[in-house]
Amino acid sequence: MKALIEHIRVLAPAGTAKLEGDLSISPACKGVVLFAHGSGSSRYSPRNRYVAEFLNESLLGTLLVDLLTTEEEREDEYNARLRFDIDLLTDRVVAIVDWLAKQPQVTGHTVGLFGASTGAAAALRAAARRPALVRAVVSRGGRPDLAGADAAKVRAPTLLIVGGWDREVLQMNRDAMALMNCETKLEIVPGATHLFEEPGTLAKVATLAANWFATHLQ
């Protein structure tokens, strides 16, 4: 029988900001995964929502949250500055992790991070700053290289997923992986470009992520 997933609209505090999000969880969940998007995306990203729904079906809770406020998103659409502000994105992810861990629906569940693009760097830096809370990380087409020296401080098992045709980002992931000291695995999805728009490639991402979180969040 499929688990009954409860969908809750939330406002997560991050400093002076209130960030809108969608929490999906059930008592049967094995853990909760916070999505950290980047590069001008939001919680309405069809790719992240696809992966989140797959994780829900795999008995994993999810929290999709906007890392920028409405006003900040308008600014970012104009100058594309905030999407590359890794310090800001990291502070937001850390604040949400702290808030999420205190929610009654999440009590008893471990937390994982799923980062895409620049959000992957923020996820890794947040994992380094909250080793007791973040138990696993997955990066999809991410920029872990932007985590800098913090990549070496990550203790959570980390899965890096990159498209086989996304050659520049693939090399960036290999370079970042060489700096990391935790359990790390690189999965290359054949025939996939940066956004995994090719048939079947995003399903492969979702399967890899679900297996990684199911293994490391229990």
Summarize this, please?
The chain is α/β, with parallel strands linked by helices and 218 residues long.
Fold blueprint:
Blueprint: E1 6-14, E2 17-25, E3 32-36, H1 46-57, E4 61-65, H2 70-79, H3 86-101, E5 111-116, H4 118-129, E6 134-140, E7 158-163, H5 167-179, E8 184-189, H6 201-216
Parallel strand pairs: 3-4, 3-5, 5-6, 6-7, 7-8
Antiparallel strand pairs: 1-2, 2-4
Helix pairs in contact: 1-6, 3-4
Overall tally of structural domains: 1
Q: Return the structural class.
A: alpha/beta
Please give the CATH architecture: 3-Layer(aba) Sandwich
Number of helices: 6
Describe the structure.
The chain has 218 residues and is of the alpha/beta class. Helix 1 (46-57) links the parallel strand 3 (32-36) and strand 4 (61-65). The protein has six helices and eight strands; from the N terminus they run E-E-E-H-E-H-H-E-H-E-E-H-E-H. The radius of gyration is 16 Å and the shape is globular. The relative contact order is 0.16. The longest helix has 16 residues, at 86-101. The chain has a single domain (6-216), classed as Alpha/Beta hydrolase fold, catalytic domain (Rossmann fold). It has an eight-stranded mixed β-sheet, with helices on both faces.
